[in-house]
Amino acid sequence: MTIKSIQEDLIDEFSMFEDWEERYQYMIDLGKTLPLIDEQYKTQDNIIKGCQSKVWVHAEMEDDKVVFTADSDAIITKGIIAILIRVFSNQHPKDIIEADTDFIDAIGLKEHLSPTRANGLVSMIKQLKMYAIAYQTQLN
Amino acid sequence: MFNVETIRKDFPILQRKVNGKPLVYFDNAATSQTPQQVIDAIVEYYSYYNANIHRGVHTLSQEATDKYEQARLKIQKHFNAKASHEIIMTSGTTHGINLVANGFASLLEKGDEIIVSALEHHSNIVPWQMLCERSGAILKVIPMNDEGALVMSAYADLLSEKTKLVFVNHISNALGTINPIEEIIQQAHAVGAAVLIDGAQACPHVKPDVQALDVDFYVASAHKMCGPTGVGMLYGKEEWLKKLPPYQGGGEMIAEVTFEKTTYADLPHKFEAGTPNICGGIAFGAAIDYMNAIGFDKIATYEHELLDYATAQLLNIPGLKIYGTSKQKTSVISFNLAGIHPYDVGTLLDKMGIAVRTGHHCAQPIMDYFKIPGTIRASFAFYNTRDEIDALVTAVQKAQLMLS
């Protein structure tokens, strides 16, 4: 699936929630159920320090596609990471570099990506793109 | 007579809704809300007599100067300083601390010692680290115990004739602990050391008497006590302020300038380079008037009731742990829910219209001590109510349910 179509699916899914509680419960459940990263990758090198929650990101290249795994010590942050991984992982580097994150606004999670939020997510997206740029350079 | 419902009417922001819910503002330790009387002072200044001060002969400048200097007198009276020139207007607590730290750089020698407490805010640690780097002085730390109180016997051991400065906050921002500053000051003076007290968290709750405390320096911020941001005060004993060199060069702080030599202005202007936050200073004065009209005794009594009530109600929640359990504390409750990250709780509370602070509260050493990433901090002011605390308790229970 393309990044765009995954984003559209997400917007559809989130439009079914009636209020913030359902939306957040969904993210919390996502955060709880998904094993997101192999423990060996939760290293100091892979850490993105937000002021409040920590985020770990690991990237690998598999058949011209970048596979991301990530984790956080806060469950809501982890839920949002699960959504970001669904969108950005297993995609060609070029597509990752060109993708935008406007869908976050459309699914009502904009506040989590505000630079003042200090949860590490803004830096995480930057990091995903940096990995994509690095892998793209290798491909060229 | 203290009537919280009447007081609440003074604060327009308390009528606000957040995420569709009535705002419950429990982040008072970060910044307090502003009463209409202070907002009016700001509006009046810009609508009626906005002008630069201390230099114009025209009417507006005279009026603005008078009001600004009146504010200084209000601050002097409030803190019971001996003279108004012992009150330096600053941009806030951090500015005051840096001003003193910078001044001491020229007075310290290699091997001199500075003592800070383990309860400090970052802003009260970093300037001293920088000062030690510059001067070769050594930084010592008074440890804290499990209750979040300072270990006074350890403090006594740290003091020696090498100690030149002691810096302690009056009240800890992260835990609300009230430090025994009278004792700290006395013991420091006994070895000839000066003491700076960070009063940022204390001034919303108590009325410090700098002469009775015999403190050498005391700093505060207006925005923690119903005033605007960007303004604060440094109290310094005259003898100390004369000893310290100026902090910044610029207009207002000079008496005479030639290319060969500049002579500095007298106190307080020696430390007030450039055009100050005139409106902010005047509004600071209005905030002090406002709080004194209510009365600090009444404020303290009421806030203590809120603290006791909130502590009892929150402790009914299974798995809730409070950090900072010193008997001497102000209306701040720092807590966590077992197995749940504070950020998650704070996020859900916000959705329910409740403003709390989450994170390390710029006091990472304290969080390291308790081995936690941070806490949820609810801090109460005199305009908060029991109903709001009930709303907090319900919201915390709901967050716990959603997150476990």
Automatic annotation (TrEMBL), chain A:
Fe-S metabolism associated domain residues: 12-130
Protein name: SufE family protein
A Pfam match: SufE
SUPFAM superfamilies: SufE/NifU
Protein family membership: Belongs to the SufE family.
InterPro entries reported in the protein's UniProt record: Fe-S_metab-assoc_dom
TrEMBL record, chain B:
Family: Belongs to the class-V pyridoxal-phosphate-dependent aminotransferase family. Csd subfamily.
Keywords tagged on the record: Pyridoxal phosphate, Transferase
An annotated Gene Ontology molecular function: pyridoxal phosphate binding
Official protein name in the record: Cysteine desulfurase
Keyword Transport: no
InterPro entries, alphabetized: Aminotrans_V_dom, Aminotrans_V_PyrdxlP_BS, Cys_dSase_SufS, Cysteine_dSase, PyrdxlP-dep_Trfase, PyrdxlP-dep_Trfase_major, PyrdxlP-dep_Trfase_small
Catalytic activity: (sulfur carrier)-H + L-cysteine = (sulfur carrier)-SH + L-alanine
Origin superkingdom: Bacteria
BP GO terms, sorted: cysteine metabolic process
Lineage, broadest ranks: Bacteria, Pseudomonadati, Bacteroidota, Flavobacteriia, Flavobacteriales
PANTHER family tied to this protein: CYSTEINE DESULFURASE, CYSTEINE DESULFURASE 1, CHLOROPLASTIC
Domain named Aminotransferase class V: residues: 24-392
